[in-house]
Write a structure and sequence with these properties.
heterodimer, A: 103 residues, mainly alpha, 4 helices, 67% helix, 0% strand, B: 209 residues, alpha+beta, 9 helices
Chain lengths: 103, 209
């Protein structure tokens, strides 16, 4: 076990706190697992092309890659994917602001 | 699919303690080729990494050694069986501290706001479970079940057990999207019990330091 586990938890928490700034009609987004995203999308009737849905899934995929990749030696792709999660969070903030979901 | 590939099942399926919301835990050990294995379906390791965690005495190595079941072998050999027992697990102190920190980070997040409340409660369940697994393995009594924390902490008040079940439900909501949504009352109940859980964890920590 290493601190990258804690880092991934923090990254996921940051994305969830951003997304859940919105009071979604039925349920909040519980986590970035595919099953949790599908439930949130379904109960809140969010379309597949909805930007926040796409970004949630992108962040989930990035964190899943990091979870698996953390089992191996840190590679340049691992490092760039770590930075990618931060970039996804930035894009999420922009998308939610531009759609007036948050101020 | 090319290269060397071994697939194992592990977790509740192999223990036989399957509950509603249980998933199928699959390990793919893959080396020397390309594969299209789904990262959401498999935990993917190289054979080299598996040998490394065996040498480290990593808890996951012990879990696989004691409970995994072979499903597929591309070379006719049960790879995990060839490894024998992992090395003795010697990092209980450090790993217990890490999982206590996970619990504390989640608790701090809950004190700040409730925007990730279900995730934070799930993280506390995970922290308690992994703390308990590491603690018991360090004492030579391996227990990799989902309910290991309840087994270890044991004698709890009815309120604490109820709060523990809320944490467990949060975990299933997060990992499988399964179960009833937590009510505000249930979330408050779980948060109220957190100091009690930490007190028990800290008491156990004194035994590993």
């Amino acid at each position: 076990m290493n601190d990258s586990f804690s880092d991934r938890m923090d990254a996921q928490r940051a994305v969830l706190k951003q997304i859940n700034q919105v009071i979604w009609p039925q349920e909040e987004l519980f986590s970035l697992s595919e099953d949790a995203i599908q439930r949130w999308q379904s109960v809140n009737r969010l379309g597949e092309d909805y930007e926040v849905v796409k970004l949630a899934r992108e962040a989930g995929d990035a964190l899943l890659f990091l979870a698996n990749a953390s089992q191996e030696q840190v590679s340049s792709e691992y490092v760039s994917r770590t930075a990618n999660v931060a970039a996804i969070l930035g894009r999420l903030r922009t998308a939610m602001t531009s759609q007036r979901l948050v101020s | 699919m090319t290269g060397l590939l071994h697939i194992y099942a592990f977790g509740s399926l192999c223990r036989g303690d399957i509950a509603p919301g249980s998933d199928v835990d699959l390990l793919a050990i893959s080396s020397g080729g390309s594969n299209d294995l789904s990262r959401s379906m498999f935990s993917i390791y190289s054979h080299s990494k598996i040998r490394t965690i065996w040498r480290e005495g990593n808890p996951f190595a012990w879990h696989l050694h004691l409970e995994s079941r072979l499903i597929h072998r591309s070379n006719g050999v049960d790879f995990i069986s060839t490894l024998g027992s992992p090395e003795k697990y010697s990092r209980a102190n450090d790993d217990c501290r890490r999982f206590l920190a996970i619990c504390r980070q989640a608790s701090a997040s809950l004190q700040h706001d409730r925007a990730s409340a279900v995730f934070d409660l799930s993280a506390i369940f995970l922290g308690l479970r992994n703390f308990s697994t590491c603690f018991l393995l360090g004492r030579g009594h391996p227990d990799f079940s989902r309910g290991v924390a309840l087994n270890l902490i044991g004698d709890m008040s009815r309120g604490d057990i109820s709060a523990y079940r809320v944490l467990e439900r949060a975990r299933l909501l997060c990992t499988r999207g399964h179960g009833e949504m937590l009510t505000c009352t249930e979330i408050d109940q779980a948060i109220k019990a957190l100091p009690s859980f930490e007190e028990r964890i800290l008491a156990l920590m004194k035994e590993v330091t």
